[in-house]
Amino acid sequence: MMMMMMMMMMLVMMMMMMMMMMVMMMMMMMMMMMMMMMMMMMMMMMMMMMMMMMMMMMMMMMMMMMMMMMVVIISHFR
Questions:
Q1: What's phi and psi for 7, nearest 5 deg?
Q2: How far is it, in rounded angstroms, from Cα 9 to Cα 27?
Q3: How many helices (H) and strands (E) does the chain have?
Q4: Exposed / middle / buried, residue 36 (Cβ in 10 Å: 0-12, 13-18, 19+)
Q5: Is this model's pTM higher than 0.90 or not?
Q6: What 3-state DSSP class applies to 68?
Q7: CA-to-CA distance for 4 and 20, rounded, in angstroms?
Q8: How far apart, in Å, are the Cα atoms of 62 and each of 5, 12, 68?
Q9: What domain of life (predicted)?
Q10: How far apart are the first and last CA of the chain?
Q11: Arithmetic mean of pLDDT, 55-69
């Protein structure tokens, strides 16, 4: 009887350990996934910012060119 009880206790302990390990693994996986998602989001944000900056620069250049052209045309007509 005592041996049976001991065996049962061992089994229960093993099961508990396994469950804990599984939970830990799941938590680790979730953390890794979250980290990856955050990294991806950061990268996307950086890319978007870069694109916006490029667009702004292009717009500024276009405006400058238009102003120059206007000045040239006005001076020409004058």
A1: -65, -45
A2: 27
A3: 1, 0
A4: exposed
A5: no
A6: helix
A7: 24
A8: 85, 74, 10
A9: Eukaryota
A10: 114
A11: 90
